[in-house]
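User: Show me sequence and structure for the first protein, then do the same for the second.

Assistant: Starting with the first protein.
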Amino acid sequence: MHGAGNDYIYLDRMDPALPPLPLPPAELARRMSPRHTAVGADGLVLILPSDVADAQMRMFNADGSEGAMCGNAIRCVGKYLHDEGYATKTDLTIETLSGIKHLTLHQKDGSHVDSVTVDMGMASSAPRDVPLSCDLPLIDTPVSVLEHTYRLTALSVGNPHGVIFTDDLCALDLPTIGAALEHHALFPDRANVEFVRVTSRNRLELRVWERGSGETKACGTGACASVAAAVLLGYCDPDVPVTVAMTGGSLTVRATQDLHLFMTGDAVRVYDGVYEI
């Protein structure tokens, strides 16, 4: 399934009677994610039972590292649970490593879910939340890397993000710059990196470098972090929906004055398959 082009392999583990996975999920993610020699994906997501929510989501990046939250993946989890009959209601809760997230499912044809709104919780610039290796927040702060200096805003949206506003997205050598910023000493747990162009007060364009996966076509938490940073710096207005355009598609994000985030986007089931080990 994919959300705005951010594609993951999903394993249905809702039945407690299923036998154990043949390999640890981190190893499965590394084996199954390569684009040319395997299934091809930005990573792997397990859909699991939960004692505290309607279901649990665990997501692993293409390099096998486990992420706390993925805004695009969680929409697909909500769609799957509803379309497969695990849930009949349109308001769901999903347990993640960054807490329980609340979903509202939208049905275009009255049966299958085609889009989902996610209450993403609060964005935080507190160094302990991001986390950062410095004592003060980074808000439009000059950060040097590879002999260049960028003005970076660091935020947590359940996972760490570094947001940089720029006038030119096309000229970016994102594989080089993104990797360097992901591993910058300021981010002890590494970071997702967003380069953002403001086209109006309610539209942003975004290129994203995801921690552990590289450049991806979309990133839900990255879109949320970008809107939060835009509101924080005065580029966008609070409580006004902002369209975030990425190479894989667009998401709509609304940030309140205190940076409570609500994200709406598509959820698309592409195919089912069997993977041999």
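Switching to the second protein now.
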Amino acid sequence: MNILIIGAGGFIGKHLSHYLSNNHSYALFTPDSKTLNASDEKSVDAYIEATNPDIIINCANRGGGRDSGNENIVHENLRMFFNIVKHSDKVSKIIHFGSGAEYGKHKPIVDVKEEDADKAIPLDEYGFYKSVASKFIEQSGNNLNLRIFGCYGEFENYEFKFISNAIVKNLLHLPITINKNVFFDYLYVEDLVKIVEYFLHHETAYKVYNVTTGRKIDLLSLARLVNETSDYTSEIKIINEGLNNEYTSENRRLMGEIGTFEFTPHREAIIRMRNYYASILETIDREKIESDPYLQLCTTFWNKHEEKE
């Protein structure tokens, strides 16, 4: 099976490449952005014609995170998306990663089902782009949308991603700071790649799946887990009382599709991540972590959605 991973240099793309490369039945194509520019139609056309993949996994993505801007997100991402899905007739399947943002982050997203995404149009640029792509996929023949609500693991941007950021702060004996507590449905990336592999080999009943554990956890509990798995106890600071907009889903459609699946407990995942970040600790800029770019941006990231309610 020939698999093309577009965006293989990103967080999810990198984990997928590592995981699938251990299975010798796959021939992987993992071009960097210089080799394949997903924004350039001719570049995508030429690469797909030259490699003739059986399946395309689209990890190409711009914006959406606290560490990214909000300019041209809809235009740039939709251009990449349609440059890729125009080749649907040449492959057996295209797997695209959607987002819980499709449900509209201007309001609480609580235990949502896949069909609930039609109840509101996202107000933010990133959520709107993901929503447009999702609606196209629902009407297409062989495209699949896997909606992710919170994926974490090694290699993510520890300056801005909460779990990695908390682990690094603990390793540096710094306080763990939470702007406002909130419930997420976090999925460990090593579970995600196993689920993706299932979809490589099976025809599905639906075009869209919430890829989540179906179990919510709040940031305070995660911070406590970081402390419990360490020989040092970081102070945990919460800046604003109460709870921010929840961001969780149910996963009955997913579980009905894949059957039994054992999700990695957060404690176990945090221990693995701690070992990884401990191994690269000398490369981490302590002064930058102390300046807390995560905290500086996360206030704006959530508050701008609350203001639009």
